Each structure stands twice: as structure tokens, then as C-alpha cells.
Automatic annotation (TrEMBL):
Location relative to the cell: Mitochondrion outer membrane
Organism: Helobdella robusta (Californian leech)
Membrane topology of the entry: Multi-pass membrane protein
Membrane-spanning ranges: none
Pfam families on file: FUN14 (PF04930)
Assigned keywords, A-Z: Membrane, Transmembrane, Transmembrane helix
Gene that produces this protein: 20203266
GO BP terms in the entry: autophagy of mitochondrion
Name of the featured protein: FUN14 domain-containing protein
Any single Gene Ontology cellular-component annotation: mitochondrial outer membrane
Family statement drawn from the similarity comment of this UniProt entry: Belongs to the FUN14 family.
């Protein structure tokens, strides 16, 4: 039966939801109210819809770990541009807000640690080998520069392709991200 028929079953004549039923792994039907009568074809419909949803999820996640995200993005791009802008802007703002809050906490933690290390060093409680730290930082910088030079062109090209494919979503996400960081 189609999804609409399944949704119609879940609503009674007055538009309120039907009683909640629980189906055990053995097929037992239980309900908080004792007078629930479930027809076998309705029970089969519910079980088939649940199985179809699980099969769809498991088949897409086995082949490609990013398949579920591609499915969501493709579904959203089928909707109107206004809906795409709204979804992109809201998700961008939420991401930016979280980045701003987590970033502040990280900066406070790193800055506080540095201040505590400096105080301990000035009090003579610890000795810091600045030459070893400087050499380690320099070697890490060289490794990062090599990695960036190797991967940056492909990353920029991928971001450009993504932005053009999902224009409304990516544009409104970026705008929402900036607003979220600022708020």
C-alpha cells in the first residue's frame, strides 16, 4: 500500500492519532488500551513499511558511507528554492552558533593553559625547553604545508563543484554560518 494509505491508517476519522500499539519481535500486539483491534492486513502493512525503511537505510549505508547525505541533499534540491534557502540558512546558523560557542570554550582552555604554564615557569615550579618546542612547531609547520600544498587544489575543486550543484543550499548555509558565528 502507498505511503498515503499508511498515513491514513495512522489517523482516525476525527484526525487524532490512533492508539499506540507495540509489536514485539514475536509478532505480539500490545496496547495501553485493551480494546485495540488490529487487522492482520494492517499489521502486515506496518511491518512491511518498517522493513522497507530499514532495507533502504542499510543498502545505502553499505555501499557508500556518504550515500545517506547524498540522498538527503538530492531530496532537498527537489523542493522549492525558498525551502532550500530556509534549510541551508537555518542549518548554517546552527552550525555557526555551535562553532562560535565551542570555539570560545577552546580558546579559553588553550589560553588558560598557556597562562598557567607561564605562571608555573615564572615561579620556578617547572622548566620549559623552548628550543625543543620551537623545533617541534617548525617540523609540524613543514608537514602541514606539504599536506596543504598536496590536497588544497582538490579540496577547492570539490568545494566549487558542491557549491554549484547545491547553489541555494550552500549559499544560504554560508550566510547562516557567518550569522551564527557572529551571534
Amino acid at each position: 500500500m502507498a505511503q498515503q494509505g499508511f498515513n491514513d491508517y495512522l489517523r482516525s476519522d476525527k484526525g487524532s492519532p490512533r492508539s499506540v500499539i507495540m509489536i514485539s519481535a514475536h509478532g505480539d500486539v500490545r496496547s495501553p488500551t485493551k480494546d485495540v483491534q488490529v487487522k492482520q492486513e494492517d499489521l502486515d502493512l506496518i511491518l512491511n513499511e518498517a522493513k522497507r525503511g530499514l532495507d533502504k537505510f542499510s543498502s545505502s549505508s553499505n555501499n557508500n558511507p556518504n550515500a545517506w547525505m547524498n540522498e538527503i541533499l538530492n531530496e532537498v534540491t527537489k523542493s522549492s528554492p525558498a525551502k532550500q534557502v530556509a534549510i541551508g540558512g537555518i542549518s548554517g546558523w546552527c552550525s555557526g552558533y555551535l562553532i562560535g560557542k565551542v570555539g570560545k570554550i577552546a580558546l579559553i582552555a588553550v589560553g588558560g593553559s598557556f597562562i598557567i604554564l607561564q605562571l608555573a615557569h615564572n615561579q620556578g615550579l617547572i622548566q620549559i625547553n623552548w628550543n625543543a618546542i620551537e623545533s617541534k612547531v617548525n617540523s609540524t609547520q613543514k608537514e602541514m604545508k606539504k599536506s596543504i600544498d598536496k590536497n588544497l587544489p582538490g579540496l577547492i575543486e570539490s568545494a566549487k563543484d558542491f557549491g554549484l550543484k547545491y547553489l541555494y543550499l550552500s549559499g544560504s548555509f554560508c550566510a547562516g554560518l557567518l550569522l551564527g558565528i557572529c551571534s
